[in-house]
């Protein structure tokens, strides 16, 4: 480490690869970056054209299963781990990670715990690689993005670890947090269709969001796995000031997807299981889309966002706790129409579809 510090290089992503059955280290496993921000992908493609060049998008694990990548640009990464020499011993595994820097420009190291399952022959090695041109979409490329929470940024955590803080990647520092350990949701590295997610127990877990908006037109995107039961409302978000609440009720009512602008308004029947939901508030109209398909509209009395804002419970934090998983939340302080809305929904579909 001291040699790297002297060279002013920084570890961006590190971790260990273990045998899922025995828990022992797996040496000589290939850990390859198969999706990355465009600046890094461009660098890899350029180097791939040069003969006898070691590409920075892949590495082999050491005798203790350890690996690392240095000096990566900020952004989201997908790592694929597989065994080049022992293809019939383990199935390949994909994990997501994210790289970011603090205010001093120092990389916030992301650590991964990767376990390789026994070979089944059912998992095919992905075709993706960085030597082919890629187009990497970022929600922040669309104007008005004020919040972008996705669970891949929490990859330093292990299964069922408590989540005290969820980093906002919009650049506006709207980091969701919970100081009380008993009220913290839990991290699941494969919590929603094999992707990282936060698990909320429907009883007392929620996050507080420092988000205040004078805008009264909004677009919210939520990727969730709604759990049944409980006989009460499942709040995804609740803003005290002006009272704008997004609610994904369970199946005991019968349930509905609805919102409150001072009056509860139903938009569509609720369903259980993985889904991405879009709420668009434009003028005096609210619209709901589920998995990119229009589901319903209702009258909307324009509301700002402010006061106490919560994720996973009503703003009073005494009832109506969400039960299920939340993998990603994106918020814009304006309505997104046409290609803009579809671009975000296609990004979410590509990331979380079965």
Q: What labels would you give this structure?
A:
Jelly Rolls; 354 residues; 39% strand; globular; mainly beta; eight-stranded antiparallel beta sheet; disordered N terminus
Brief account:
About 10% of the residues lie in helices and about 40% in strands. The chain has 3 helices and 23 strands.
What layout of secondary structure does this protein have?
Elements: H1 2-6, E1 11-19, E2 30-35, H2 38-48, E3 58-60, E4 66-70, E5 75-82, E6 93-99, E7 110-116, E8 145-150, E9 165-166, E10 176-177, E11 186-192, E12 195-201, E13 207-208, E14 218-226, E15 235-239, E16 244-248, E17 256-260, E18 264-269, E19 273-282, E20 285-290, E21 293-299, E22 309-311, E23 323-332, H3 338-352
Parallel strand pairs: 1-7
Antiparallel strand pairs: 1-4, 2-3, 2-5, 5-6, 8-23, 9-10, 11-12, 12-23, 13-22, 14-19, 14-23, 15-16, 15-22, 16-17, 17-18, 19-20, 20-21
Structural features, described:
This protein is mainly beta and 354 residues long. Strands 8, 11, 12, 14, 19, 20, 21 and 23 form an 8-stranded antiparallel beta sheet that branches. It contains 3 helices and 23 strands. It has 2 domains: 2-116, Carboxypeptidase-like, regulatory domain (Immunoglobulin-like), CATH 2.60.40.1120; 139-352, Jelly Rolls, CATH 2.60.120. Helix content is 9%, strand content 39%.
